[in-house]
Design the sequence.
């Protein structure tokens, strides 16, 4: 029992230490950047510093630990994880996310291995638990995209009002950045500032689509770019685009309502065997332990797990409809 408590304590301590170290390193880096900006503005830097070449590129830091940051920068996994974290609006790094996944894999795998004596079952449980940090990031990302999608028609209406009042497209985007709530406001503010700092409008809009890869936003951006190339009444185009987005959102909610029973059935059929197995183990541990103490029981567990996963994926494929 003391060994289990020790492993759990070490796992929690490791996660907390990694998060504190990462946040502290990020704050220190930001403080250095602010100090450098002040020194440059006040002309207090030395001649040696003044003669150095200033690097204006965006240096993405994937981890506060140097060797992990170097490894992740050479792999495609680092930028992809960092993009997911930015889209979820979390103050994490790719290295801290991978560290949390590693700790969440090791601790449950050791506990299950000590309890059951099966290394494979422990590894499977560890893989499931290790996916939880990534699942949390995906959940936050999905929620943020949903909020963006709900606020996009109002943002289009605001741009239409600004264009009909005689303002330019850039001024209309700036008004959306100032008046709309996050995440609409912060994303349009980034696009507005990139355009003001010298980027071409098409490049700034492409960056916006890269940060928020939504079909509704792609429709709006395509309308803006087509109007920029060929001309026309952008206010009318955006007004009709806003109407199309509202109709898509209404249709999506109707489909979600009609498929709610199917989704609930999928969750019940997927989780019921797991919950029932846990309840039977609490009632009669000796009987349930036969599943992993005998070869036939282990084979049945593998077959049951495979059928649960396949059945859940089939139900998900049935109830999910692209609109």
Sequence:
């Amino acid at each position: 029992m003391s060994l289990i408590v020790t492993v759990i304590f070490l796992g929690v301590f490791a996660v907390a230490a990694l998060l504190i170290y990462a946040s502290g390193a990020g704050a220190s880096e930001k403080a250095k950047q602010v100090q450098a900006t002040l020194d440059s503005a006040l002309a207090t830097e030395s001649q040696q510093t003044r003669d150095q070449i200033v690097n204006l590129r965006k240096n993405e830091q994937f981890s506060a630990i140097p060797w992990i940051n170097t490894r992740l920068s050479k792999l495609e996994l680092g930028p992809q994880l960092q993009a997911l974290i930015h889209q979820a609006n979390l103050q994490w790094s790719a290295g801290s996310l991978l560290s949390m996944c590693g700790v969440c894999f090791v601790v449950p795998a050791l506990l299950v291995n000590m309890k059951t004596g099966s290394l494979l079952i422990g590894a499977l449980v560890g893989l499931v638990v290790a996916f939880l940090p990534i699942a949390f990031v995906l959940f936050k990302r999905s929620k943020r995209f949903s909020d963006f999608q709900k606020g996009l028609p109002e943002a289009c209406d605001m741009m239409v009002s600004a264009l009909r009042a005689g303002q330019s497209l850039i001024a209309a985007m700036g008004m959306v950045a100032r008046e709309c709530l996050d995440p609409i406001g912060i994303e349009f503010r980034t696009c507005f500032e990139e355009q003001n700092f010298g980027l071409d409008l098409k490049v700034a809009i492409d960056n916006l689509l890269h940060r928020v890869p939504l079909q509704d936003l792609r429709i709006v951006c395509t309308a803006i770019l087509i109007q920029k190339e060929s001309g026309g009444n952008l206010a009318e185009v955006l007004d009709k685009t806003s109407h199309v987005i509202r109709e898509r959102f209404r249709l999506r909610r109707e489909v979600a309502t009609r498929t709610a029973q199917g989704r609930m059935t999928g969750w019940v059929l997927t989780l019921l065997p797991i919950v029932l197995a846990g309840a039977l183990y609490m009632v009669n541990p000796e009987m349930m332990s036969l599943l992993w103490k005998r070869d036939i029981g282990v084979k049945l567990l593998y077959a049951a797990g495979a059928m649960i996963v396949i059945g859940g994926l089939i139900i998900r494929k049935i109830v999910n409809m692209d609109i």
